[in-house]
Amino acid sequence: MRFRLIYLILVMSIGGGSAAANELSSCTITSSYDIYLSGIHTGEMKRVEAWQGKKASIVSNSKASILGIGTAYSQSAEVSWSDLDHEWITDKFHQKVSGFRSRDMKVTFTDGGHQSNVDIDGKASSYISKDIPLRDVDTLSIQIRENLLQGKQAFRLNRQASDGIEPYQYQVHQKQIKIFEKWGELEVIPVEQTGAEHVTFLFAPELEYQLVEARYHGFILRGLLTLEDYESTCKN
């Protein structure tokens, strides 16, 4: 159970910084997070978004451990804006996990993100989502932000997991004021994710709608991701 939860914390949606598709030329967003498991600091995560027009390259790296047993996670993803559907889609991503549940996963998307071709350690498979596109975790977070900017209060997104499609439902809650040790008093927008995993995200409009906190609601152990450092050359 503990190792499953550590893995979920590493791969749950962790970003949230992007800029409007028609306003960007080139810019970079760098975010660093601390990972906690039931109140105990267990690791760190760093995420770098390099934006160029309506496309982005996103690199995420994480390490976490508990009782001397850990896992490392790295992913590079290519994201682009769909002028047809007015949303962010994943073009491809490459994910590596070492330690617990180790794997080398490469995925490419076609048909506007509705079809995926997955290669895990040399074993190939494919998936189709007829109603909404398939995305990786990085593009999920960017699309959540886009939906907040568009004023949506409820929506659905699908994630391409290693063994299938994971559907999520999202509910946007009322804004609230929260005090952070690192950032002081911030207005945040809670977004609750249900479905395959239950997570509550807090996005801060004052920080370009950056994700400042994510809580994983487990039955036994609870996971927490908190923003510790943030630099951006992008503008809303």
Description:
This protein is mainly beta. Helices cover 10% and strands 61% of the residues. It has helices at residues 2-11, 137-149; strands spanning 26-37, 40-52, 55-66, 69-82, 87-99, 103-110, 115-120, 123-128, 134-135, 154-161, 164-172, 176-180, 184-195, 199-204, 210-216, 223-232. It has a 16-stranded mixed beta sheet that branches. It is globular. The protein starts with a helix and ends with a strand. The model is unreliable at 1-5 and 16-22 (pLDDT under 50).
Task: Annotate the secondary structure layout.
Layout (H helix, E strand, L loop, with lengths): L1 H10 L14 E12 L2 E13 L2 E12 L2 E14 L4 E13 L3 E8 L4 E6 L2 E6 L5 E2 L1 H13 L4 E8 L2 E9 L3 E5 L3 E12 L3 E6 L5 E7 L6 E10 L4
Parallel strand pairs: 9-10
Antiparallel strand pairs: 1-2, 1-16, 2-3, 3-4, 4-5, 5-6, 6-7, 7-8, 10-11, 11-13, 12-13, 13-14, 14-15, 15-16
The percent of residues in helical segments reads under 10%
Largest sheet: 16 strands, mixed
Q: What pattern of helices and strands is seen along the backbone?
A: HEEEEEEEEEHEEEEEEE
Question: How far is the first residue's CA from the last residue's CA?
Answer: 40 Å
Q: What share of the residues does DSSP label as strand, in percent? A: over 45%
Number of strands: 16
